[in-house]
């Protein structure tokens, strides 16, 4: 805390991992001797830069850009870019730190990093978004490369922004280096299933949790927070597997739709028109929009927080348990507060952390890198099958590791320990880097 003052989210993420690692260090003192944990907490490199751009009225605007290159023991830094006004160093570091373990858990050759800006895309024109992305990349390009650092999207960064970023990278470097960014469009180096991957992966993971208990998604009532990339494709896969999503949200409020969220309408509003959940309620008969309030008051069997960090607190956890919820699986990064996790556990609700549950996005990014490196492109069905296998094997790895360390059924400990051992062993093999 003294070394990284004021970075509350980073402290929270580190504390959660540390708590899980006590049995590991007890069993394998070499990790303590090698100061692996302290080295893991210090990013290899942190880049902070000025992003000036011109708005439609001709005024100069100024934002701050970040890229935290956290750990490259397993491969090039890999992790998304977030454009949201709440972004500051503490957020980027918490996300980058989590990314190290998540990427290790996928079993793929990728290190951990994260970046972004305090730029607020809301209400900005297409031209403004493009000029911002171009200015952002004008500094960032010198730190990237397919063997060095490979960003992707996150909150506020989707296919459109990746396109503008890639265009500027190509223009400055005079290299069509497809492997430098993931989440690209299908006609210019992108992978099938990348858009859907995080949300689909979340639901494959939950399906595996249910199977493990001799159950299935069929007929389950599900609540999903958010209505962005992760939420939309989590809803789609829940519906494909026989569940029904009865509520989703944005930062202004939530919609309850007992008939099941109409995905065509939701995609049209969010992806095409860039509208709001209140528009959904206006256009869909029989639904209600609740401004403010907590989506976790809606009774459900399964809750999937897919919006942002710390969106599910202890009161919300208690409400979920009262409403009969039996599984909470994190689609977003760290959406559940530590108090909420305790409350869920005490109430017997099974809980699975984002670094395992939402790893399908980055895993499919690694599949995109593989396709770019071999100048190949795979079919949707083949790529989705790979994603499904990866998610089911992450699930099993979490449970096996939890068993091995005497905390059966503890997905948090299982994910933290399995990810840690993978990256720690590589760090030791590479010497004191
Ligand atoms: P999007 O920008 O597509 O969507 C974010 C959604 O969350 C929007 O509905 C947004 O509502 C809502 N939201 C964002 N900030 C807040 C806030 N402070 N309070 C309430 N609601 C908020 O982002 P993604 O779907 O890509 O990301 C969602 C989460 O998933 C993040 O935690 C991200 O780190 C994580 N994630 C994403 C991956 C990916 O592949 N995209 C991979 C792994 C994790 P509004 O429009 O009103 O702001």
From TrEMBL:
Q: Assembly and interactions? A: Homohexamer.
Under the heading SUPFAM superfamilies, the entry gives: Aminoacid dehydrogenase-like, N-terminal domain (SSF53223), NAD(P)-binding Rossmann-fold domains (SSF51735)
- Highest rank taxon of the organism: Bacteria
What InterPro entries does its record include? Aminoacid_DH-like_N_sf, Glu/Leu/Phe/Val/Trp_DH, Glu/Leu/Phe/Val/Trp_DH_C, Glu/Leu/Phe/Val/Trp_DH_dimer, Glu_DH, Glu_Leu_Phe_Val_DH, NAD(P)-bd_dom_sf, NAD_bind_Glu_DH
All copies of the Glutamate/phenylalanine/leucine/valine/L-tryptophan dehydrogenase C-terminal domain together span 191-431
Q: What name does this protein carry?
A: Glutamate dehydrogenase
Q: Which organism is it from?
A: Microbacterium wangchenii
Q: Which Pfam families match?
A: ELFV_dehydrog (PF00208), ELFV_dehydrog_N (PF02812)
- A molecular function GO annotation: glutamate dehydrogenase (NADP+) activity
Tell me its family: Belongs to the Glu/Leu/Phe/Val dehydrogenases family.
């Amino acid at each position: 805390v003294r070394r990284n003052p004021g970075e509350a989210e980073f402290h929270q993420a580190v504390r959660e991992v540390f708590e899980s690692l006590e049995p590991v260090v007890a069993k394998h003192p070499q990790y303590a001797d090698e100061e692996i944990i302290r080295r893991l907490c210090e990013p290899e490199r942190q880049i902070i830069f000025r992003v000036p751009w011109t708005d439609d009225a001709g005024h100069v605007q100024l934002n701050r850009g970040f890229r935290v290159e956290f750990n490259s023991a397993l491969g090039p830094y890999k992790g998304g870019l977030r454009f949201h006004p709440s972004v500051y160093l503490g957020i980027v570091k918490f996300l980058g730190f989590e990314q190290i373990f998540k990427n290790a858990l996928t079993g793929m050759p990728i290190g951990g990093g994260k970046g972004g800006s305090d730029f607020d895309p809301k209400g900005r024109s297409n031209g403004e978004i493009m000029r911002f992305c171009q200015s952002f990349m004008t500094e960032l390009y010198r730190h990237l490369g397919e063997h060095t650092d490979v960003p992707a999207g996150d909150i506020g960064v989707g296919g459109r922004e990746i396109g503008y970023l890639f265009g500027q990278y190509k223009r400055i470097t005079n290299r069509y280096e497809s492997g430098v960014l993931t989440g690209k469009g299908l006609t210019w180096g992108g992978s099938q299933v990348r858009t859907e991957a995080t949300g689909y992966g979340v639901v494959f993971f939950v399906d595996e949790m249910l199977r493990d208990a001799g159950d299935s998604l069929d007929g389950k009532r599900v609540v999903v927070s958010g209505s962005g990339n992760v939420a939309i494709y989590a809803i789609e896969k829940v519906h494909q597997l026989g569940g029904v999503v009865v509520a989703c949200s944005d930062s202004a409020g939530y919609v309850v739709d007992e008939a099941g969220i109409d995905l065509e309408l939701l995609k049209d509003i969010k992806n095409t028109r860039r509208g709001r959940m209140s528009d959904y309620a206006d256009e869909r008969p029989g639904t209600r929009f609740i401004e403010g309030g907590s989506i976790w008051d809606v009774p459900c069997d399964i809750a999937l927080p897919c919006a942002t960090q710390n969106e599910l607190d202890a009161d919300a956890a208690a409400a979920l348990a009262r409403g009969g919820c039996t599984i909470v699986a994190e689609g977003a990064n760290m959406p559940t507060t530590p108090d909420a996790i305790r409350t869920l556990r005490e109430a017997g609700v099974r809980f699975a952390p984002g670094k395992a549950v939402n790893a399908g996005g980055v895993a499919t990014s690694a599949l995109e890198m593989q396709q770019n490196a071999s100048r190949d492109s795979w079919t949707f069905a083949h790529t989705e099958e790979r994603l499904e296998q990866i998610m089911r094997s992450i699930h099993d790895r979490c449970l096996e590791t939890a068993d091995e360390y005497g905390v059966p059924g503890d997905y948090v400990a299982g994910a933290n320990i399995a990810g840690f051992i993978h990256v720690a062993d590589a760090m030791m093999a590479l010497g004191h880097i």
